[in-house]
């Protein structure tokens, strides 16, 4: 964890190794997409460390015992379109029974303001824990807008997970939603004048889907 208790830096060597491979500008679309999925699955271990579990009885080949299981149906992975999709695949590998929500936001290229074009979530959000997936916490505008929109539905809890953050994005999200924990694999230096993170990963949507 970093100085703030609500910013979790997932600095496991495996995660850092894969983030470094993703930074390479000559990484193929195939390998970039696979790495997004793998890093997200690895980050799920940290993000879900405090996930709610309940006890169940289980019959082993030897005898009956008790174990704990996560109730995946109470968990909602919210993909912020379109770049969140790659992270969603990795998270679902770890918790295949989780529910999925989608928020479509695009960034106005001139003002960087987040504009919503799609919103679809499971019902009964007051009983569900939400994990918002958006790979780049850059200006923070889309993260703030996504969390704000989700909170209108009064979910049980909200966490925000990204691959890379920068100080500007963390400050914006912390200011708007101080109680929402942020999970990131790295905190990069700064934003450039186009709202991209430096040194960063470039445009994660384009790199994931090969639309460069
Ligand atoms: N979105 C991206 O894909 N990359 C950035 O650096 C910032 C926002």
TrEMBL record:
Regulation of its function: Allosterically activated by GTP.
Keyword field contains Glycosyltransferase: yes
CDD domains: PRTases_typeI (cd06223)
Domain of life (superkingdom): Bacteria
A GO MF label: GTP binding
Residues binding 5-phospho-alpha-D-ribose 1-diphosphate: 82, 107, 134-142, 203
Gene Ontology biological-process entries: UMP salvage; uracil salvage
Entry note: cofactor: Binds 1 Mg(2+) ion per subunit. The magnesium is bound as Mg-PRPP.
InterPro entries: PRTase-like, PRTase_dom, Upp_B, UPRT, UPRTase/APRTase
Cofactor: Mg(2+)
Pathway: Pyrimidine metabolism; UMP biosynthesis via salvage pathway; UMP from uracil: step 1/1
Reactions listed under catalytic activity: UMP + diphosphate = 5-phospho-alpha-D-ribose 1-diphosphate + uracil
UniProt cross-references to Pfam families, sorted A to Z: UPRTase
EC number: 2.4.2.9
UniProt entry keywords in alphabetical sequence: Allosteric enzyme, Glycosyltransferase, GTP-binding, Magnesium, Nucleotide-binding, Transferase
Assigned protein family: Belongs to the UPRTase family.
Known role: Catalyzes the conversion of uracil and 5-phospho-alpha-D-ribose 1-diphosphate (PRPP) to UMP and diphosphate.
Annotated protein name in UniProt: Uracil phosphoribosyltransferase
Provenance organism: Mycolicibacterium chubuense (strain NBB4) (Mycobacterium chubuense)
């Amino acid at each position: 964890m970093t100085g703030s208790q609500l910013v979790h830096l997932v600095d496991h060597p495996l995660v850092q190794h894969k983030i470094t491979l993703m930074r390479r500008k000559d990484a193929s679309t195939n390998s970039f997409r696979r790495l997004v999925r793998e890093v997200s699955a690895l980050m799920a271990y940290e993000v879900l460390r405090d996930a709610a579990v309940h006890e169940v009885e289980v019959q082993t080949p030897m005898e009956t015992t008790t174990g704990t299981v996560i109730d995946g149906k109470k968990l909602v992975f919210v993909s912020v379109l379109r770049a969140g999709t790659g992270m969603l695949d990795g998270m679902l590998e770890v918790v295949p029974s989780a529910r999925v929500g989608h928020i479509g936001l695009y960034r106005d290229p001139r003002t960087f303001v987040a504009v919503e074009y799609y919103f679809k979530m499971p019902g009964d959000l007051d009983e569900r824990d939400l994990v918002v997936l958006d790979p780049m916490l850059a200006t923070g505008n889309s993260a703030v807008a996504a969390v704000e929109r989700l909170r209108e539905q009064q979910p049980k809890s909200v966490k925000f997970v990204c691959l890379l953050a920068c100080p500007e994005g963390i400050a914006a999200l912390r200011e708007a939603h101080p109680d929402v924990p942020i999970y990131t694999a790295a905190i990069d230096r700064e934003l450039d004048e186009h709202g991209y993170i430096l040194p960063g990963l470039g445009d994660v949507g384009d790199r994931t889907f090969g639309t460069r």
